[in-house]
Design goal:
Blueprint (H helix, E strand, L loop, with lengths): L3 E10 L9 E7 L17 E3 L1 H8 L6 E5 L9 H9 L3 E6 L11 E4 L9 H4 L6 E6 L17 E6 L11 H13 L4 E2 L3 H5 L3
Parallel strand pairs: 2-4, 4-5, 5-6, 6-7, 7-8, 8-9
Antiparallel strand pairs: 1-2, 1-3
């Protein structure tokens, strides 16, 4: 099995989406195939780690909930890697931009599709996902009609907020998202709780 370039491993609560509040071990894989102008994540640098080294790092935490994130984890995460951590007793979630199909064996798929992925969602996720979490903001295409998407348990819109500004200074971004959900009640708004409360 090949090594993975790991940007960081940390233990925290999930701050957004359908697993908000869940204690998880975040494993951020370096690298991405997109360069979204609103991305607030440092994913460029990574230290090569073997799966055994990653597992040793995970074992210091009490949770067995593992979240693969990035960057874009589907670029490097393979079926055999997922199987390795499943055998070690970890339930695995993934956050993906939708441009690539996820590896087999993932327990929870959170897809935050970017426009580059819209035409690939049906082929990349023929069985659906656990949650769609579309970025919502000025200059970003509106999400497709729900009927055109593979099935999901949750349909979220996530307002894009500048991490360098207070929430009170960004009321218009929130109000625009709230207004859209009120007009399209099949959607739910998902705010990045970790930024509001102040945890990683």
């Amino acid at each position: 099995m090949q090594d993975l370039p790991i940007n960081e491993i940390f233990y925290s609560l999930q701050g957004e989406g359908g697993q908000t509040g869940l204690a998880m071990i975040f494993v951020r894989i370096a690298g991405c195939n997109l360069r979204c102008p609103y991305c607030d994540t440092d994913f460029l640098r990574g230290k090569l780690m073997s799966l055994e080294e990653i597992l040793t790092s995970l074992q210091q935490f009490p949770s067995r909930e593992l979240l693969w994130t990035g960057g874009e984890p589907t670029l490097l995460l393979s079926d055999s890697m997922v199987a390795f951590f499943k055998k070690a007793g970890y339930k695995q979630s993934i956050e993906t931009n939708g441009t690539m199909p996820p590896p087999q064996g993932i327990d929870y798929i959170s897809c935050s599709p970017k426009p580059e992925a819209f035409e690939r969602l049906t082929s990349n996720f023929p069985q659906g996902v656990n949650e769609w979490r579309f970025p919502f903001g000025e200059g970003i295409p509106l999400p497709p009609e729900i009927a055109s998407l593979p099935p999901a348990q949750h349909y979220f819109l996530s307002p894009i907020l500048d991490p360098h500004k207070t929430i009170s200074a960004q009321r218009s971004a929130l109000q625009s998202c709230i207004a859209y959900v009120l007009e399209h009640p099949q959607w739910k708004m998902s705010v990045q709780t970790h930024k509001l409360v102040g945890f990683q």
